[in-house]
Write a structure and sequence with these properties.
Mean pLDDT: 87
Oligomer: single chain
Strand order of the largest sheet: 3-2-1-4-5-7-6
Number of helices: 18
CATH class of the largest domain: Alpha Beta
Number of strands: 19
InterPro entries: DDH_dom, DHH_sf, DHHA1_dom, Oligoribo/pAp-PDE_c-di-AMP_PDE
Structural class: alpha/beta
Shape: elongated
Distance between the termini: 31 Å
GO molecular function: nucleic acid binding
Strand content: 15-25%
Helix content: 25-40%
CATH topology of the largest domain: inorganic pyrophosphatase (n-terminal core)
Number of domains: 3
Length: 475
């Protein structure tokens, strides 16, 4: 996660665990308890945090057997408390104080023992997750921390969206597998059906793999106009953000996405944007696990396909969370369905578009640019860009075409060069819309904006202009 929210309170008498927790938790404000009395434990805990950033703000001295120590943190939301105390009587007393003084907190407890003696369990209305040290060694601490934080996030989402009778799940135009899977996951998380919680988009689904996924998984996306959002009690955005749309959105209640943040969404009741994640489907898998939702074969297949599609089969921009979600979903998928979604038939209309692109492409210094002219389907542009990145010696591909009064560019690179999303944002410079990730990005210029800034929309001018724009940025 790219921004801090809430409190991460460590109550631990093991310096090694304390040190690990301090250095892996990045998403919340960290506070580490240190006993008032100067003794060996105090010295060890101080040393454990010695090289932590903002050490003076992390360490908090106090008496954890007094209610006042915990009462001082009530203003935080959410609160995650990590506990590991060797003295079981002291652990039980401290735990009771936390439950009383911080009633909305989530607790992650580590206890000495074998899983057979200390089995994994959720207690106190799912507020506390208890793990043995042995089990902890078999799974990354970071995964456990994400799990307990996700339990709070799930409650927050359900509280916000549960109040609406009709909830619209808004996806980007021509939603991709990650968006479709994420919307299906949120619908299941809320325990809703397609009638009360439909998938919405401002554009039709056109890409063959997306159509195949919808047909095979019995999904439906309703095409609406921006003003139709008023028909819904709540609006949730999946795998996209308000800043990705060319028109302002009248209202947004929930945003869940993995693309870089492109605006200030403080007006949304809930916002979870994690640009380090490879797919929004990974975030939704964590939500489902935390919400104790059964992930059936259909949903598991959708989520795994969403992760594969957005990470190029785990070869692009993945973190441990993506890998764990993928591995956890894999045993439950339908392999035949997955293969049929991944290998849809390519329509014959793609052949002349590709032929024209090959005949008119231009390359210079490891950059290849192609212009397709007017296209009847926007998805043809990224498909050509993906194909052309396979040429030997090419590190960047920019494929442009005209679609619905816009000049649309799909950008691809090999991954070890400059960030494609950053490059596109600099080129747009307020003249259009777009952005993306390190290896793939998209730019949209309204034709009237293009002509004012760059001149005519002839094939030669567009291709030459695009080539010069990107040569200045990528080399």
């Amino acid at each position: 996660m790219d921004f801090k929210r809430g409190l991460f309170l460590v109550i631990c008498d093991d310096p090694e665990l304390t040190s690990t927790l301090v250095h892996i938790q990045k998403s919340m404000d960290i506070k580490v308890w240190v006993p008032n009395k100067q003794n060996q434990l105090q010295t060890s805990l101080l040393e454990a945090c010695e090289d932590a950033t903002e050490k003076d703000h992390i360490l908090v001295k106090g008496d954890i057997t007094k209610a006042s120590f915990f009462a001082q943190w009530r203003a935080y939301d959410p609160i995650c408390v990590v506990m590991s105390l060797k003295d079981n009587e002291k652990y039980l007393n401290v735990r009771e104080l936390i439950l009383e003084e911080l009633p909305e907190s989530r607790i992650l407890s580590f206890q000495v023992g074998h899983p057979g003696v200390v089995p994994r369990k959720l207690v106190e209305n799912d507020r506390e997750l208890v793990l043995s040290w042995t089990e902890l060694l078999s799974r990354p601490i970071s995964a456990e921390l994400r799990h307990i934080e996700s339990t709070h996030r799930v409650k927050e989402i359900r509280d916000i969206l549960g109040k609406g009778e009709k909830i619209g799940l808004l996806l980007q135009p021509d939603p991709d597998p990650d968006a479709l899977a994420s919307a299906l996951a949120l619908r299941c998380l809320l325990g809703r059906n397609k009638a009360s919680t439909p998938f919405l988009s401002f554009g039709r689904v056109t890409r063959p793999e997306n159509i195949a996924m919808m047909q095979l998984l019995d999904l439906e996306v309703i095409t609406i106009k921006p003003e139709d959002l008023s028909l819904y009690d709540k609006i949730a955005l999946l795998d996209t953000q308000p800043g990705h749309f060319t028109v302002p959105l009248s209202r947004v209640d929930v945003i869940i996405d993995h693309h870089p943040m492109v605006g200030n969404y403080s007006s949304a009741a809930y916002c979870d944007i994690r640009s380090k994640y490879g797919a929004t489907s990974t975030i939704m898998t964590e939500y489902l696990r935390a919400g104790a939702v059964n992930i059936g074969q259909r949903l598991a297949t959708a989520l795994l396909y969403g992760i594969k599609a957005d990470t190029l089969h785990l070869n692009r921009e993945v973190i441990d969370a993506d890998l764990y979600a993928f591995v956890s979903l894999y045993p439950d998928i339908n392999y035949n369905l997955l293969r049929r979604m991944e290998k849809p038939e390519i329509p014959m209309r793609f052949a002349p578009v590709l032929a024209h692109a090959l005949l008119t492409m231009a390359s210079q210094d490891k950059l290849l640019v192609s212009y397709l002219g007017s296209v009847v389907r926007e998805d043809l542009i990224p498909q050509v860009a993906d194909f052309m990145l396979q040429f030997e010696g090419i590190e960047w591909v920019v494929c442009a075409g005209i679609y619905q009064e816009n000049i649309v560019m799909s950008v691809r690179n090999v991954g070890y060069v400059k960030n494609a999303g950053d490059v596109v944002r600099r080129i747009i410079s307020g003249s259009g819309n777009g952005g993306g990730h390190r290896t793939m990005a998209k730019a949209i210029f309204p034709i009237n904006v293009w002509t004012e800034r760059f001149g005519s929309i002839t094939e030669e001018n567009i291709r030459t202009t695009v080539l010069n724009l990107f040569l200045e940025e990528v080399l």
